[in-house]
Amino acid sequence: MSRIGKLPILIPAGVKVEIDGQTITVTGPKGTLNRTIDGHIKMEMQDDKILISRNDEGLTARSMHGLYRTLIANMVHGVTEGFSKTLEIMGVGYRAAMEGKSINMALGYSHPVIYNPPADITLAVDGQGSKVIVSGADKEQVGQVAAIIRRFRVPDHYKGKGVRYLGEYVRIKVGKTGAK
Q: Which of 26, 57, 68, 82 has the most CB within a 10 Å radius?
């Protein structure tokens, strides 16, 4: 039995969960998320809990048991509190600014980099333009948008310039030395 999969998912007040066959829809103050679950996994509601179990003991069902329990728990957490990732922009002249819902970044290129986020994602920039906060209800989508923004200028291993996650460690390499 999966140690994670057998744990019940508690449904907080203000969250509405609907199970229709293999589709689960979770609605809360931050939005609505839905997901289709694999046929090897069974979901059922009991009072204010969601219980996840497997239909069989095959390898596929056992490997997906904990995964789908975590995905559904992330959906419940996302519609109540939401998820966020913070990115740091490091480098002289590197900065970000909001233009409506999109973000305009100066990342050392000859042109500004403009990114328009998906409808469910909110971007924010701190006062100095050195931090970008990506937030939303869907954990996967928040992580994907943060990865896309980071990919515009991956941190350089010689000078440390670029876009990195908050707290990410970038090992600085030693540069070339002159031949003697």
A: 26
The CA distances from residue 166 to 10, 75, 99, 132, in Å, are 30, 24, 23, 10
- Map tokens 């508690």 to a residue: 10
Q: Is the pTM of this model over 0.85?
A: yes
Strand 122-125: give its sheet, edge to edge.
122-125, 131-136, 83-90, 162-165
The two structure tokens encoding residue 32: 């609505």
The backbone torsions φ and ψ at residue 58, rounded to the nearest 5 degrees and listed phi first, read -70, 170
* Positive or negative: CA dihedral 70, 41, 30, 88: positive
The confidence score (pLDDT) of residue 147 equals 97
Residues sharing a CB contact under 8 Å with residue 92, sequence separation 6 or more, in sequence order: 161
Delineate the domains of the chain, giving CATH numbers in brackets. 9-80 (3.90.930.12), 83-165 (3.90.930.12)
Residue 2 has pLDDT above 80, yes or no: no
